[in-house]
Structures are given as C-alpha cells and as structure tokens.
Amino acid sequence: MTALRHVPAEVVAARALAKASKGSSLKGYLEKSYERLGIPDSLRPVIVALVSNVARRWMLLAKALGYPYERPRASFKFWLSLVVAYQALFRKQKPSKLSWAFKEFPKRDYVDLLRSSPEDFLRDLIPEERDRVYLSVPKWAWEDIKKITDPKEYVLSLDERKHFWVRIRKEGAEAELRRLGYEVEESPLPDVVKLRGPMRWLVRSKLAPSKVVIMELASATIAHLTKGRVLDLTSAPGGKALHARDLGRLVIANDLDPKRFAFGGLERVRSDARLPPFRKAFDALVLDPDCTGLGRLHSPETRIWVSMTSKHKMAEYQRQLIRSALDLLRKGSRIIYSTCTVTWEENEGHAGLFEGLEPVEVPYALPGRLPGWRRYLPNVHGTIGFTFVAYEL
Ligand SMILES: C[S@@+](CC[C@H](N)C(=O)[O-])C[C@H]1O[C@@H](n2cnc3c(N)ncnc32)[C@H](O)[C@@H]1O
Question: What percent of the chain has pLDDT over 90?
Fold first, then answer.
C-alpha cells in the first residue's frame, strides 16, 4: 500500500477505526484526515475499502491475534494490529510493503498469518459460530436476527449488495440515469428505482439531490404513509421529511440536532421530541428514532458500534419519544413509527404503547410479528433491514 506523506494508509484506517470505536463518525474523521494529510482522491477509495473490510472481519482478525473478540477496544494499537493482520491474512501483502509496521507487530506473526487462511482460526468453533465470527456480528445481534430470518444470508446480502436505490424527484431523471450508464429497475414504489452500477457515477453527476435523492426503498415507504400536515419528530438528515414535502404534504421537520440536516427546503424546528412544543395540529406524525441499526450492518460504523450498543437503553429512549408523540394525536390522525433495525424490543415490543389505536393496513414489505407491523429484509427485498407501522386514532 502506498505511503501518504509518510503516513501509511493502514495507519489512517486504524486511526479512523479507533475513533469510530469511541463513537465518532468514520466519514467525518476520514474527510478531515484527507484534508490534513493531503491524501489524493485516487487513494481515498482504497482507504475506505480497507476500513470497511477490516470492520466486517474484525472479530475473526481479533481471534486470529488471540484477543477477546466480542467487544472491540477503542485503542489505535488494537486497530492497527487488526489492519496489519488483514493485509496478511486476506490480501497476502508482501512483508516488504509493511516493514514500518514491524516495530509494533512482530514480523514472525505476520509471516504466520501470510501462511494461514481465515478458516484456520475458525476450526475450533461450531459451524454457526464460524459464520458469526467470520462475519463479525455480536452474539446478541445474531440471535435477534435469527428470530426473523437466516442471519448469515441477512448479513451477506447487506455486505455483497451490488445495487442501490434512488428516489426520483424530477421527470426525465430516469433517462438521465440510464445515460450515466446505470441499469434501472422499477420498485414497488412509484417514485423509487433500483440502480445497478457504481454510486460514484451519480455522486459525480449533477443529478443529486435536485433530480434524484439516494434513498433506501424501505425509508421511502414512510412518506407514502403520511397525509396532510406532517410533523416529523426526529427528522434529520431529512430524507423522509423532504420526500413527504415532495409528495405535497405540509411538513415540519423537527430534530434535537439541526446540524445533522442534509437537505434544504424544509421548515425546520429544533426541539426535544420528548417535550415537543407543538399542538395537536397534525394529520400524520413520523417518528424514526435512533436505534441499534441492525438493518445497516454493512456500514463499518454500525458493525463496530453494534457491539457496544444496548438495545434496552435504545428501547427505553424510544418509549419516551413514543409516549410524547402520542399526546399529539387527534381523531383521524396517524403516527408512523419506523426503525432501521429488526429487534423485538425496539419495534413490536412497543406495540402496547399504541393501545387504543388502529393499525393501518399497509401493502409494502412483509408482515412483522404483530398486526400492522411490516418489515423489509436485506435477503428478501435487497434493502436495509427496516421495521415500521402506522397506527391511526
Ligand atoms: C434515525 S435518525 C432520523 C432519520 C430521518 N428520519 C431521515 O429519514 O433522514 C434519528 C434522529 O433523531 C434525532 N433525535 C434523537 N433524540 C431526539 C430527541 N429527543 N428529539 C428530537 N430528535 C431527536 C437525532 O438527532 C437523529 O437525527
């Protein structure tokens, strides 16, 4: 791997992974590092791939090095060892390319890893554990996914996805996407298409966000369930709120952290949705709170964070938000609740709070575990894992 002004890519990747283990955003950290170190555009995808591949195999790599492997350490040294081990075990990089690393990482261990295969470190485990450790998913998350679907298929579908979804905002955008080189496929939603081809074509074009918005099919379902005057209680970066506005709704986009908004053109409010400063003046409330993110396990951050997340803490916070949102309902209005996760505790486990409301029949995705609840699954729909429900008063 090429050295960047004397800072090897492995070091940049390990620093980013250590920051992510403390809760910082990987993307934000990498962007700052690119600027500070003058990393050329051509090398950025290499670093992103390294970070992503190490995050997706971190448990196996930790096991190969004899470390405990259910929770990552937040130290740079820990992540640098994993990155170097990855270069040996998966990339079979010649030791001469990593000579700088052997001050910290014994060269003898590197050579041993070069001669080994990932399977060598999994043999002592039962077959299901082999899959789990190879894919680097913590036990609780694996077990929760297993209650719904095959966890190996679920995680592989996220990791190996070759398509992405976009929402069409302007007529004619589909033809422009085809001209960029994409294979365009319809979706169950009238304004969402599936694209096959690299995302960078779209990023480099001038199409997003004025003509199309990169948006998961699952997330795009929510705005279609809204009506009339909409209050999105936890709305940043604003994908669902903007969609609802594009569908002609009158939208208020509320969030505790307005810095997270990524789209213009929204009527924004900053407030804590647990103490919302609103009246019962809305036809639809959208509540899409922070969650454990098991639907986004392909993201390197989620893969690391999920090991340290407590679904019970998340669920308690969600309960507070739901209770406050319910106070804003009036006769005939509805609440649409969604998460990008699949745990019972963060989804159907909240159903008791909606007692007295009617679940709305929804024609999208698969039935969840209780009436009205629906679920998108990566291995069935090619989307993120996503759970949602609409209830009406
Ligand atoms: C999953 S994100 C929402 C994504 C958004 N629905 C979209 O489609 O772009 C959850 C959001 O909840 C916000 N949030 C967390 N606690 C909150 C609170 N007490 N009140 C309002 N917003 C909150 C976070 O800042 C975050 O932006």
Answer: 87
Residue type present at position 125? L
Closest atom of ligand 1 to 240 CA is 8
Dihedral angle of Cα 375, 381, 210, 197, to the nearest 10 degrees: 160
Residues 205 and 259 in one domain: no
> pLDDT digit string (tens) for 127-180?
999 999 999 999 999 999 999 999 999 999 999 999 999 999 999 999 999 999
Q: Of all atoms in ligand 1, which is nearest to the CA of residue 272? A: 20
170 shares its domain with 255? no
* Structural domain count, the chain: 3
CA of 234 to the centre of ligand 1 (A): 4
Ligand 1 shell residues, CB under 6 Å: 219, 234-240, 255-257, 260, 272-274, 288-290
Distance CA 234, CA 218 (A): 17
Range of the domain at 66: 3-136
Question: pTM higher than 0.85, yes or no?
Answer: yes
* CA 291 to ligand 1: nearest atom: 1
pLDDT for res 5: 59
Matching residue, tokens 């390294």? 50
